[in-house]
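Before any further analysis, backbone shapes were mapped to integers, which produced the following:

***
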Amino acid sequence: MGMKSYAKGVVKEGKRVRWPKREDLIPAIIVTVVISVIAALILLAEDAAGARLIDILADAFNSMNGGAGA
């Protein structure tokens, strides 16, 4: 199967697809963006909490060693 034949098959299948109407597509895009933003905020909070925990542990270990180290 050559590249030209493959491209023709892709175009043919693309024409057979039932594409969603704009009225259906816009709400789906909005939901996707909102969920993505919420997920990003959750990951940001988890990252900040993890970084804070690492700082607390590093300070605790440094104080146990009498302040020596990093």
User: Anything to note?
Assistant: The mean pLDDT is 91. The two ends are 61 Å apart (CA to CA). Residues 20-62 form one domain.
